[in-house]
What we know:
Blueprint: H1 6-28, H2 32-36, E1 46-48, E2 54-55, H3 57-68, E3 71-87, E4 90-103, E5 108-123, E6 126-136
Parallel strand pairs: 1-6
Antiparallel strand pairs: 1-2, 3-4, 4-5, 5-6
Amino acid sequence: MESLSSAEKDTITREIKAEISRLITGCEHLDMGMAFDMFLDAPDFLMMGTDGTLCDFNTYLKNNIDYLNTCAGFELTTFKEEIRILGPETAIFSWAYGVEATLKKGKMDIIENAGASFIFRKMDGKWKVVYYHESSVPPKRISRMQ
Length: 146
């Protein structure tokens, strides 16, 4: 890994946090453009969902827009976050969070414990997510006799 000064690391941290803040604000205001602008719209983007499925940018974007369009309100709570800087153009953002979504039909969707990992690359002066992995409460483990 390339050695970075404290000032360079602080700048990267501040820039990544600004992108995450835009994601949170965009989701909470149901502003799809703001929420998903940080994700790379290119074949190189890859997302792994909580169910282990992999999808490209267009599928990821469509799934999120379809869901957020069912919401009347959306709130994210950050429990913990951490940034690992791998170099001047690569960083990992790890995030533990919760979600409360108020659906237009009057119901609530609540995810108490979720996590996400974002791999950011700086491209043309902007930080973009090239890989995104979501997780939630541990899956149920089933033991079977053979």
